[in-house]
Structure formats: C-alpha cells, structure tokens
C-alpha cells in the first residue's frame, strides 16, 4: 500500500493534508494519534469508502476497485454484524462471500476467543464480544490487507494478548496489517508506528526509536514530547523530530 500527497475533505473541511506513506507487505503498522486526528479517515481511504485526491495504490490497484473486493478486511469501530444471527452464522456468511479463499470458520472463531459462545445470537453478546464477531468476519476472508480500527478497545488484557498474538501470526502469513489504537503500549507490538496529529503524519518509526529519539521511558511521554515539539515548530516550518522519527508530510 502506498500513498502520496493524500488529501481528504469531509463536510467542507480538509481532514488529511497531503499524506505520504507506505506499508510493507507482511508488516504490522500501528496508527496512533489523538482523537479526531484522521486515523479513521485514512483507513476509509485505503479500503475504498472515502473520496480523496492525490495518489493511493492498494495491492496494486485503486482503492475500492473490483479486483480488490475480497482481498481487504476492514474492521470498523462499530461492529458490522447481523444481531439476529449467531456468531458462527455471521462468520460463515462472510466465508461464503469470500469463496474458496476463505479460512475455516471454527478456526477463526477460536482465534478471536468466541468459540464457546459461537452458537448464540449476537444480540445477546457484550460490546467486546460483538466486536470480536466483527473481527472474525474480517479475518475469515483471509485478506491480503487487514485494516483494523481500534480492534482491542474495551478488551481485557488476556484477550488483548491473544489477539495481538493472532495478528502477528496473520502477518507472518504475508498479510499486511494497519491497526489504530489509543493504547500507546500496543505500539511495541507493531513493526512500525505512524504518529498522526491534525491530519498530518508527525513521526514514522518503531516504538523503541520513538523512545530513543525523545529520551523518555514511556511511550505516552514520547508521543506527548513529539506533539509538543511539533506544536512549537509550527509556523516555523515542518516539524523535525530528533533521531529516527521523520516528518513525511507533503506541504500544501
Ligand atoms: N462526515 C464528516 N463531516 C465532517 N467532518 C468529519 C466527518 N467525519 C469525520 N470528520 C472530522 O474529521 C476529523 C477526523 O476524523 P476521524 O474519524 O478520521 O478521526 P480519528 O483519528 O479516527 O478519531 P478517533 O480516534 O476519535 O476515532 C475529525 O475532526 C472529525 O470531526
């Protein structure tokens, strides 16, 4: 996946201001940044449900184009499942749509930790359980690109740990994963991190590089440091982050 000068306008306001980024095949990239900075908007552009200008290439094609259907898994923040169907029926439905490339339904239900309640209607599930049904539907199509908008929100540490192990296994199988999160420590699970603020990418680095470049011990503090640096550099030109973190935005 590759973007160059990606601009998105929503409701008359420019939300993404010319992003340049690339995701390596089989890698896990964390998308982090304050609420409202544009993470979902970037994800929507990549999966093909958002108008944009600039260049965007996903698995060698234009986002939303026919060849990409079935090759991308997208988990939105709101569970996209049929409440009157069971978890198994929901997952089986998406497996049917995917055709021969689909993974086994049981395997995926176990992977997201809902095998034991798979035969209950989703309407009886908690919010976290419902989100995991949604995740199962995204995973069962064996996507080449998996875009996950806050997949671990509201989950307990054990389930969170299991899901991250599953994401790593899926990436090792060649799937490229872009995952947004508000939990800064989840950045350590990723091969690289994109730190966004106000529709721009402030830093692109590994979690360890972010710590090293800011000289702090906690990732929360590293992000705050980078955001403050960017704020104080604003008006004086692009923010330059010490060390490995670099500003890759295109000025417009
Ligand atoms: N349909 C819309 N019309 C106008 N503005 C919108 C629309 N949808 C989103 N926005 C604005 O675009 C900006 C980016 O929103 P987006 O949902 O991409 O942020 P986010 O980083 O994913 O936030 P969060 O972490 O809270 O989910 C926000 O300021 C939001 O208010």
UniProtKB/TrEMBL annotation:
Q: Which PROSITE patterns match?
A: ABC_TRANSPORTER_1, ABC_TRANSPORTER_2
Tell me if Nucleotidyltransferase is a UniProt keyword of this record.
no
Query: Which segments constitute the ABC transporter domain?
Result: 1-223
User: Which molecular function GO terms apply here?
Assistant: ATP binding; ATP hydrolysis activity
Kindly state which keywords UniProt assigns to this record, in alphabetical order: ATP-binding, Nucleotide-binding
Q: InterPro entries recorded for this chain?
A: AAA+_ATPase, ABC_transporter-like_ATP-bd, ABC_transporter-like_CS, P-loop_NTPase
Claim: Glycosyltransferase is one of the keywords in the record: no
Descriptive protein name: ABC transporter ATP-binding protein
> What lineage does the source organism belong to?
Bacteria, Bacillati, Actinomycetota, Actinomycetes, Actinomycetales
């Amino acid at each position: 996946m590759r973007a160059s000068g990606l601009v998105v306008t929503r409701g008359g306001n420019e939300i993404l201001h010319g992003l340049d980024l690339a995701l390596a095949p089989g890698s896990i990239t964390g998308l982090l940044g304050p609420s409202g900075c544009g993470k979902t908007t970037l994800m929507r552009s990549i999966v093909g449900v958002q108008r944009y200008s600039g260049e965007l290439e996903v698995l060698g094609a234009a986002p939303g184009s026919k060849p990409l259907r079935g090759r991308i898994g997208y988990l939105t923040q709101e569970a996209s499942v049929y409440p009157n169907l069971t978890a198994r029926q929901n997952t089986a439905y998406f497996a049917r749509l995917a055709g021969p490339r689909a993974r086994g339904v049981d395997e995926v239900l176990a992977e997201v930790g809902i095998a034991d309640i798979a035969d209950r209607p989703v309407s009886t599930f908690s919010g976290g359980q419902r989100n995991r049904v949604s995740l199962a539907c995204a995973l069962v199509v064996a996507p080449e690109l998996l875009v996950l908008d806050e997949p671990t929100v509201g989950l307990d540490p054990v389930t969170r740990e299991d899901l991250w192990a599953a994401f790593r296994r899926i990436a090792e199988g060649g799937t490229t994963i872009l995952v947004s999160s508000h939990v800064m420590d989840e950045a350590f699970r990723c091969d690289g991190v994109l730190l966004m603020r106000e529709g721009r990418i402030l830093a692109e680095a590994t979690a360890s590089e972010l710590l090293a470049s800011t000289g702090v011990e906690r990732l929360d503090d590293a992000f705050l440091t980078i955001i403050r640096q960017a704020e104080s550099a604003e008006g004086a030109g692009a923010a330059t982050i010490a060390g490995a973190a670099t500003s890759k935005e295109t000025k417009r």
